[in-house]
Design brief:
The protein is of the alpha/beta class. The protein contains 10 helices and 5 strands. Helices cover about 55% and strands about 10% of the residues. α1 crosses α10.
Length: about 200
């Protein structure tokens, strides 16, 4: 079995950028955000359950989930967020397990599961061997999120309030990357982590 690393961090922390750098060094990636996009595309497995739960307004003209519509509700209404998660999370978990099995049959030295809500969900924490947290200040998170299309500062704050706090994430971590610097700094972090994880796999 491959070493499984659970990668998480608050919105705007740099999870995706770090994941890309670990993959470039040979890691296998299981990206729960990518899976979520796949199951909410036109014809995706979550579309009809979401339509039944939220109505046709939740589905865009092309048949995909209207992510902007859903974001505005799920990150400002805990009941809506819980309903959304009850639909998509079981589908995501099934696909994650399938991809982990495939990664175990590959030559990848370890598997990175990118899970934004890993700390909030006991299910994911029990599935990984180590938790890797990408951390930065809230001010940095807000500045990065504001650069994304369709996300206002108010929405960024609402998302942060729904997610685990920095202290909670850091307390759950075995490995931490403080991502306040440049992409070159992030490359250095990725190289250090890659050697470390390969070393664990070699001695397992």
């Amino acid at each position: 079995m491959a070493l499984i690393i659970g990668l998480t961090g608050g919105i705007g922390s740099g999870k995706s950028a770090l994941a890309e750098r670990l993959v470039a060094r040979g890691a296998a990636l299981v990206d729960t955000d990518a899976i979520a996009h796949d199951i909410t595309r036109p014809g995706g497995a979550a579309i009809e359950p979401l339509r039944a739960a939220f109505g046709s307004a939740a589905i865009s003209a092309d048949g995909a989930l209207d992510r902007g519509w859903m974001r505005r509700r799920a990150f400002t209404n805990r009941a809506a967020k819980a309903t959304l998660e009850s639909i998509v999370h079981p589908l995501i978990r099934t696909e994650v397990e399938r991809q982990i099995l495939a990664a175990n049959e590959s030559s990848a030295p370890y598997v990175v599961i990118a899970v934004p809500l890993l700390v909030e969900s006991g299910i994911w924490r029990e599935r990984v061997d180590r938790v890797l947290v990408v951390d930065c200040s809230e001010a940095t998170q807000i500045a990065r999120v504001r650069e994304r299309p369709g996300l206002t500062e108010a929405m960024a704050h609402a998302i942060l309030e729904m997610q685990a706090g920095r202290d909670e994430r850091l307390a759950a971590a075995q490995d931490i990357v403080f991502n306040e610097g440049s992409l070159t700094d992030l490359d250095d972090h990725a190289q250090r982590l890659h050697h470390f994880y390969c070393g664990i796999r070699a001695t397992a």
